[in-house]
Specification:
alpha/beta, binds magnesium ion, Rossmann fold, globular, three-stranded antiparallel beta sheet, about 25% helix, binds guanosine-5'-monophosphate
Length: about 190
């Protein structure tokens, strides 16, 4: 492949924070760890949080080598960034009952942690047999609430990133890496 994956959108991306290769390696590593931890449990139910987690969910599920069911939820946070209210609305709920299931929430990024914190309470109330979280990215300097995330891919600086599922105004999700946008992009 002559043209690198950073070719398109290259004018918009200031810096690659996590490369496609790094994501691949880390996903395999996390999958191995999870598969080992869940070896003596049966099927695992992965709950992906739309839309940001779709890429990671797809790659993680395929790397896992453990039987899974896939579920998706869509939530929207109100004022999570500005006011830290942590008020969350469910835009798409689970399609099925998770009672007695071994559930792993698959997240793109833990920023303030408010969305995830709310989501974990919600899922706990549905009576799963166990509940853990795997998140590709975390911004340690942005965390406002302590959320128990057992499996973490990368700790990144407290800056807005796009790619590999993460968007800016619904764009850049398809980038195979995670990068920083040039400031000019926000000014458009
Ligand atoms: P929270 O602040 O509740 O932990 O993050 C909620 C959601 O905001 C994340 O799941 C993610 O979808 C979005 N988010 C947080 N940080 C970033 C970021 O740096 N870039 C993008 N594109 N989305 C982010
Ligand atoms: Mg998310
Ligand atoms: Mg977004």
């Amino acid at each position: 492949m002559a043209a690198g994956s950073e070719q398109w959108y290259s004018d918009d991306i200031a810096e690659v924070v996590v490369s496609a290769e790094q994501i691949k390696e880390k996903t395999a590593e996390l999958a191995k760890q999870v598969a080992a931890d869940y070896a003596d449990r049966g099927e695992v139910l992965l709950v992906g949080v739309l839309k940001g987690a779709v890429m990671f969910m797809a790659d993680f599920a395929r790397a896992l080598e453990h039987p899974v069911e896939l579920e998706f939820m869509a939530v929207s946070s109100y004022g999570a960034r500005a006011t830290s209210s942590g008020v969350v609305r469910i835009m798409k709920d689970l399609d099925r009952d998770i009672t007695g299931k071994h559930v792993i929430v698959v997240e793109d990024i833990v920023d303030s942690g408010l969305t995830l914190s709310w989501l974990l309470k919600y899922l706990t109330s549905r009576g799963p047999a166990s509940l853990e979280v795997v998140a590709l990215l975390r911004k340690p300097d942005a965390v406002k609430v302590d959320v128990p995330v057992k499996y973490i891919g990368f700790d990144i600086p407290n800056e807005f990133v796009v790619g590999y599922g993460l968007d800016y105004a619904e764009r850049y999700r398809e980038l195979p890496y995670v990068g920083l946008l040039r400031p000019e992009v926000y000014a458009r």
